[in-house]
Write a structure and sequence with these properties.
Elements lengths: L2 H16 L6 H11 L6 H12 L5 H22 L9 E2 L2 E2 L1 H5 L1 H22 L7 H12 L5 H7 L7 H23 L8 H21 L2 H4 L5 H5 L4 H23 L7 H12 L5 H7 L1
Antiparallel strand pairs: 1-2
Helix pairs in contact: 1-4, 2-6, 3-4, 3-9, 4-6, 4-7, 4-9, 6-7, 7-9, 8-9, 9-10, 10-13
C-alpha cells in the first residue's frame, strides 16, 4: 500500500470509530468534514517517511502516528478559522467548519479531533506497548503547553512575539512531532528527530507566509492577505519577499543537516529536497531555484 493510501485508510478507521453507535450525528459529520477531503497531508507523509527511514518495523504504529498528527493538524485548522481567531469563511476550497456547521459544533469538532488523535495512537501501539509512552508524549507535546499548537495560537493574542518563536509553536511543532512520532513508531529514540522536523516546519510556515502574500485565494483554497489584514507577524512582512525566500532556503538546509543517522537517511534527504519547492507557488519556486 502506498503512503497516501496508508494515510487515508488510517484516518478513515479513526473517523469510523469516532462516528460509531451513539455518536451525535452532526458532530460526527463535522469531524469527517474537517478531515476529508484533505490537503497535501504533508505532516503524516513526513511521519511515514521518517518511519521508513528508520526501518518501518511496526507499520500499524506508524500509520496510527501519522493519522494522529493529521488529526491534530485538522483540529488546529478548525480552531484557527473560528470567528474569534481568523474568522475565515473557507478552507481547502470549501466553507470552513463553523460556516458549514455553526460555531458551537466547530469548537467541539476541534476538541474531539484532538482527543481522537490520542485514541488513535493508543490503538495503534498495541503490538509494541513500550512504544506507546514515547508516542503519547510526542502527541501531547505537539498540542499543549508550553510549546504546542495551543501555545502557537495563544502567541497571536500577545502584544509582542518573536517571529521564530511564533513559527516554532504555530507550525514547527507539528512537523517536529511528525518526525519524532515516525521514529518512535519504528522503535527509534524520537528526541534526535526534533530539530529536523522543527526546521522543516518553520520552512513550511515561511512558505505559507509567502503564499499568503503572493497567491490568490483560488490558488491555495483559503483566504489570502490575512497576515496584513490581521496585523499578524509574518516572514514577508518582517523580511520582505527576497528575505523570506532566503530564510526558507536556510531552514531547509538546516533541516537536512539535522537528519539523524539512520538506514534511510540518504533517501529521506532526497525526498525532502524534491518536495521542498512544492511549498512555494510555481512562479516563486522557479525564481528561487
Amino acid at each position: 500500500m502506498d503512503v497516501a493510501a496508508r494515510i487515508e485508510k488510517a484516518l478513515e478507521t479513526a473517523l469510523d470509530a469516532a462516528g460509531g453507535e451513539g455518536a451525535p450525528p452532526r458532530l460526527a459529520a463535522a469531524m469527517r468534514y474537517a478531515v476529508f477531503p484533505g490537503g497535501a497531508r504533508i505532516r503524516p507523509r513526513l511521519a511515514l517517511s521518517v518511519a521508513r527511514a528508520c526501518g518501518d518495523g511496526d507499520p500499524a504504529a506508524a500509520d496510527a502516528a501519522a493519522a494522529a498528527i493529521e488529526l491534530l493538524h485538522c483540529a488546529s485548522l478548525v480552531h484557527d478559522d473560528l470567528p474569534c481567531f481568523d474568522d475565515a469563511d473557507f478552507r481547502r476550497s470549501k466553507p470552513t467548519v463553523h460556516v458549514a456547521y455553526g460555531e458551537p459544533l466547530a469548537v467541539l469538532c476541534g476538541d474531539a479531533l484532538i482527543v481522537l488523535a490520542f485514541e488513535t495512537v493508543a490503538r495503534g501501539a498495541t503490538a509494541n506497548p513500550a512504544r506507546l509512552a514515547p508516542l503519547v508524549l510526542t502527541v501531547a507535546g505537539a498540542v499543549g503547553m508550553p510549546g504546542g499548537i495551543a501555545a502557537g495560537q495563544a502567541w497571536e493574542c500577545e502584544p509582542m512575539v518573536d517571529l521564530a518563536e511564533y513559527h516554532r509553536a504555530k507550525t514547527g511543532v507539528l512537523f517536529a512531532a511528525a518526525a519524532m512520532a515516525g521514529a518512535a513508531a519504528a522503535g527509534h529514540e524520537p528526541a534526535p528527530w526534533r530539530i529536523f522536523g522543527a526546521r522543516l516546519g518553520e520552512a513550511f510556515q515561511v512558505a505559507d507566509d509567502i503564499r499568503d502574500a503572493a497567491c490568490t485565494a483560488a490558488e491555495i483554497g483559503k483566504p489570502v492577505g490575512q497576515d496584513a489584514t490581521l496585523g499578524r507577524r509574518s516572514a514577508v512582512l518582517d523580511l520582505g519577499m527576497a528575505g523570506a525566500l532566503d530564510r526558507l532556503d536556510r531552514l531547509i538546509e538546516e533541516a537536512l543537516a539535522a537528519v539523524p543517522a539512520c538506514p534511510g537517511a540518504a533517501e529521506l534527504k532526497a525526498i525532502v529536497r524534491k518536495q521542498a519547492r512544492g511549498f512555494l507557488p510555481k512562479e516563486l519556486a522557479r525564481e528561487a531555484a
